[in-house]
Amino acid sequence: MTSNKSLATSLVSLSAGLLLTLSAAGGATASPAKAQDPVQPQIASATLTTSTAASYWTPERMRAAVPGDVLAAKAVARQVIVPWQVKGPQQLNGNGLAGLGEQGSLTKIAGTSGKGKTSALHKDELPVSHIGKVFFTLGGANYVCSGNSVAARNKSTVSTAGHCLNQGPGAFATNFIFVPAYNDGEAPYGKWAAKTLFAPKEWSTDGNIQYDTGFAVVAELDGQKLADVVGATGVVFNQSRGLTYKAFGYPAASPFTGKTLVSCYGKAGNDAVNPQFNTQGIPCDMTGGSSGGPWFLAESTDSPLGFQNSVNSYGYGSRSTAMYSPYWGSVIEQVYKRAAAAS
Q: N or C: which end of the chain has fewer CB within 10 A?
């Protein structure tokens, strides 16, 4: 493909042509004192067999994997406001994010002209050692998402979207691997098999899109720990809303191919169409496969990556021009801490 589309937005097909994309990524540390949600969440986990996961993922299976956004459909459908009932467009805080028009399509989004032509809202990126693709099996089907190596005591923790490791609600994934710095079929740092998966029960039991985040703890590879090989980024929680982010992912649904990393950049605004999601979005045109890709706090599109503060989760429309992410409050922080401390 000619453009490098890195931020992960998976698109989920809903009844009226509504497509949604889901997110993920994680890192290392601190949060302000004020919590935004309960501080003693229940955490679900699953232990996996690691011996066969890497060999399971042949080049053919990786190429054929389905973008994981389709796994978000049930959660979104339970909570979504029917788009044609929303009187729009609704502009969000001058960010270029908008609500849905009466025909159920995004209008007046950043980069969209009055003639219906949309400029690219992504930037092609070279591979980043700690950002990669996630492959897994759920319900007998093979899927692909994005993920990030995050700082942790165990040096083995990967952040991704909740729907990229658990059906939400339902079973946990099997054959879960993380392929850092994936680039056009190449795995320069190998395939890292997950030995434990973690998700908030708000996701694993209720499928609540507000908590669409999960963490995987991967086994050592050739006697080495993940962070010692590819690095890891810090994480923060309970931050102010409306901050500026740079998001990454491997969009695989058309017009992308999933072969290379891309990014999106912008100031976050609340989802005006479904405010009950408590999510934030930035201008972005990534598609399915970018789910679970990391959101980093950023001062500019070319500034060094800051702390990770969320993951790609969902977008609206077959040509979505905004990517939304769950707010990382105290529930997700506790899930991260549990994963980061796991052996």
A: C
